Amino acid sequence: MSDAVLYAIGDLADLGGVSRRTVRYYVQEGLLPAPLGLGRGNHYGPAHLEQLLKVKAMQEAGRTLEEIKHALSGTRARPPQAAELPRALDRSVWRRITVAPGVEVHVAGGVRLPSSGKLNELVAWCRAHFHSVMEEEDSDA
């Protein structure tokens, strides 16, 4: 074993393109095997570097650490629980009716619109009243 290539944690981290902290975290999470040796004499071998590069490649491909852990261990990831599944968004249809410059009425899709004559009365009223308010604001400025 004296001829085998051994890496200190800093060397392994540099070769793998990660930080020392990441190497320690991967060992803690079971993504990398524990270092060889104990204490300050611990070191990493070529198998550690190969595994680190594999983890990094899978992560860059968009896989989560949990997915990577299951892939490396040969087990399947557990299916997500009901509470973890994304909820379908509530969707609704709304209609927008411009009744004056800068003023809109939003009407839910399930609400029946009044006749076009009544809508025209609403538009005329809004334009008369909102227009005068807008003119007053413009003159105050």
Low-confidence stretches: none
How many individual β-strands? 2
Under CATH at level 1, the class of the largest domain stands as Mainly Alpha
CATH architecture of the largest domain: Orthogonal Bundle
Order of helices and strands: HHHHEEH
CATH topology assignment of the largest domain: Multidrug-efflux Transporter Regulator, Chain: A, Domain 2
Beta percentage is 5-15%
Helix content: 40-55%
Report the end-to-end length measured between terminal Cα atoms: 85 Å
* Number of helical elements: 5
Largest β-sheet summary: 2 strands, antiparallel
Brief synopsis:
The chain contains five helices and two strands. The chain is mainly α and 141 residues long.
Write the layout of secondary structure elements.
Elements: H1 9-16, H2 20-28, H3 46-60, H4 65-73, E1 94-100, E2 103-108, H5 116-140
Antiparallel strand pairs: 1-2
What would your notes on this structure say?
The chain is mainly alpha-helical and 141 residues long. It has two domains: 9-73, Multidrug-efflux Transporter Regulator, Chain: A, Domain 2; 94-140, no CATH class. It has helices at 9-16, 20-28, 46-60, 65-73, 116-140, and strands at 94-100, 103-108. The protein has a two-stranded antiparallel sheet with strand order 1-2. It is rod-shaped, with a radius of gyration of 32 Å. The model has no long low-confidence stretch (mean pLDDT 82).
